[in-house]
Amino acid sequence: MSIDFSLSPELEEIRIQVRAFIDEVVRPAEQAIDENDRDSLIAGIIKMRT
Questions:
Q1: 8/41 Cα distance (integer angstroms)
Q2: According to the 3-state scheme, what is the secondary structure of the chain?
Q3: pTM of the model
Q4: Are the beta carbons of 15 and 5 closer than 8 angstroms?
């Protein structure tokens, strides 16, 4: 007996949306934060929340 670990279509769509958000918003912000100071870190976090 095997277990099916595949995602439902709804969960797969959420996974795709989360991946896109990470690629489009979080990673670019991470690079900018790495290059700047603490104030930029806080501003980046606030910007991602909105």
A1: 36
A2: CCCCCCCCHHHHHHHHHHHHHHHHHHHHHHHHHHHCCHHHHHHHHHHHHC
A3: 0.61
A4: no
Task: Compute the distance between CA of residue 19 and CA of residue 28 in angstroms, rounded to an integer.
Answer: 13
Q: State both tokens at 13.
A: 């769509």
What does the alpha-carbon distance between residue 21 and residue 48 come to, in Å, rounded to a whole number?
A: 10
Q: C-alpha distances in angstroms, 15 versus 5, 25, 34? A: 14, 15, 26
Q: How confident is the model at residue 38 (pLDDT cuts 50, 70, 90)?
A: confident
Provide the residue type at 30 as one letter: E
